[in-house]
Amino acid sequence: MKVLLTGSAGFIGFHLAKKLLDNNAIVIGIDNINQAYDLDLKKSRLKILAKNKNFKFYKLDITNKLSLEKLFKKEKFSHVVHMAAQAGVRDSIEKPGLFINSNIVGFGNIIELSAKNKIKKFAYASSSSVYGLNTTKPSDESEKCEKPASIYGATKKANELIAHTYSHIHNLSTIGLRFFTVYGPWGRPDMALFKFTDAIFKKKKIDIYNHGDMNRDFTYIDDVVEAVIKIILSKKKINTNYEIFNIGSGKIITLKKFIKTLEDVMEIKAKKRFLPMQKGDVKDTLALNTRIEKQYNYKVKYTLREGLSEFIKWYRSYYNK
Ligand SMILES: NC(=O)c1ccc[n+]([C@@H]2O[C@H](COP(=O)([O-])OP(=O)(O)OC[C@H]3O[C@@H](n4cnc5c(N)ncnc54)[C@H](O)[C@@H]3O)[C@@H](O)[C@H]2O)c1
User: Fold this and answer.
1) Least buried of 55, 87, 118, 124, by fewest C-beta within 10 Å?
2) Does the pLDDT at position 122 exceed 80?
3) Is 298's pLDDT higher than 90?
4) In terms of Cα–Cα distance, which of 214, 222, 215, 204 is closest to 15?
5) Domains of the chain, each with CATH number or no CATH
6) Which protein residues touch ligand 1 with a CB less than 6 Å away?
7) Packing angle between helix 151-170 and helix 107-116, nearest 10 degrees?
């Protein structure tokens, strides 16, 4: 099994690469190492992966089709796991062009080359953001998603539509992974958990949007990795070549409970600043996990407290706190 893993310097890509290597896959990672957040974190992740002889890395931008063509020709992948994207709802309001380039043009290049090179499975990161302004909770894969609340959500929905066409015309096996707020060690500095932790350690106020009236389905990284690896490694015959899965914890956590649990785990009280809702954000997310549970025997293992403890342990050791 030879996997092209895009976004391998990123949070989820890094963890997936490690697990694929543990399962004896050869992993070719690509990433443009963009400056969306602290570069040291991306470099440190890559340093860890580089220790494995079955991992090879190319610094490459997925909007550069010519370089990608050469790479596909040279490396001859059996599977593609596409994680590279501009991530984050709020940034997409300020820099829509960046999101359209990486998430639509870049996505188009990767899927086109996957079809041309007869890749066995093409798994890609979608997002809970595709549910946008839908109010039914939990969110079910079979519901219509036509009301994205952000450009980011719109690009992820566009990916699913493009994937459908490639499955239909080229018989490419595509699997869309709708992740719900993933957190854990090596997590992203632009996400709430990291920002809260950082501010609490520095005795600064944490920003709480919509005055705390928000709820999220938080999914621990090891649970996410477990699900994705099961899907990629599975030899099970499925009756469709176009699949979409929610990957969440299936539990709704109020922002207040999230902060309280974090304070308990850190044994420090947070100073709080309550603010209105941010543009592009949604009030609630919650995954219905039935589809992946049934098809791949997916079971969530981590509670919020366990997941947060793992994150804080990592944070303390990485930043010497
Ligand atoms: N973390 C979450 O909670 C979450 C939730 C839903 C969906 N997702 C999706 O999962 C995927 C991975 O997310 P993450 O949290 O690991 O984000 P991340 O930002 O840590 O990782 C993405 C990586 O892609 C790289 N990248 C971006 N544009 C690129 C380009 N044009 N060419 C090459 N590399 C490029 C970045 O440098 C980064 O290292 C993304 O597609 C994201 O949209 C994440």
Assistant:
1) 118
2) yes
3) yes
4) 222
5) 2-182+220-249+286-300 (3.40.50.720)
6) 7, 9-13, 31-34, 36, 42, 61-63, 83-87, 102, 106, 125, 127, 179, 181-182, 188
7) 10
What average pLDDT does this structure show over 33-37? 96
pLDDT-based confidence at residue 239 (cuts at 50, 70, 90): confident
How many angstroms separate the alpha carbon of residue 110 from the centre of ligand 1?
Answer: 14
Query: In the structure, what pLDDT confidence band is assigned to residue 236 with cuts at 50, 70 and 90?
Result: confident
Q: Once rounded to an integer, what is the mean pLDDT over residues 291-309?
A: 97
Residue of 4, 12, 42, 126 to test ligand 1 pocket, by largest number of atoms within 8 Å of CB: 12
Pocket test of ligand 1: the residue of 41, 42, 122, 179 to mutate, having most ligand atoms within 8 Å of its CB, is 179
Does residue 152 carry a catalytic annotation? yes
Q: Which of 124, 152, 166, 302 is catalytic?
A: 152
Ligand 1 centroid – CA 268 distance (Å) = 31
Distance, CA of 40 to chain centre = 19
How far apart CA 222 and CA 229 sit, in angstroms, is: 10
Q: Which of 208, 223, 222, 221 is nearest to 260 (CA)?
A: 208
Asked if the model's pLDDT at residue 88 lies above 90, the reply is no
pLDDT on residue 237: 77
